[in-house]
Design brief:
The protein is of the alpha+beta class. It has a single domain, classed as Ybab, Chain: A (2-Layer Sandwich). Helices cover 54% and strands 17% of the residues. It has 2 helices and 3 strands. It has a 3-stranded antiparallel sheet. A hairpin with a 4-residue loop joins β2 and β3.
């Protein structure tokens, strides 16, 4: 592979990755606590867009509420990670790496 081909592929890869990163800002995933009492909507850039807490949780102790929120956040992050992996894999498909 000559240097010009390599530079063209590098430019193409950069454009694809930049496009994927911009698209991640538009992606929204929902993380749920085990019982669904907490819902976190998160972008593909890990920005929390919305937090919904069922009012019946407010009667629980502080530690329990915190744990339920953490569970919902972790679920949203796991889903965002999966979307990120898929989008980045798609962005790099077809780009041949030099030997």
């Amino acid at each position: 592979m000559d240097i010009n081909s390599l530079m063209a592929q590098a430019t193409e890869l950069k454009l694809r990755i930049n496009s994927a990163q911009k698209n991640l800002e538009k992606v929204v995933v929902k993380g749920l606590s085990d019982n669904g009492d907490v819902i976190i909507e998160m972008s593909g850039k890990y920005k929390i867009l919305n937090l919904t807490i069922n009012e019946r949780l407010l009667s629980q102790d502080k530690h329990s509420i915190e744990q339920i929120i953490i569970d919902a956040f972790n679920d949203a992050k796991d889903k965002a990670d999966k979307v990120i992996d898929e989008m980045m894999e798609s962005a790099t498909t077809g780009i041949q790496m030099p030997e």
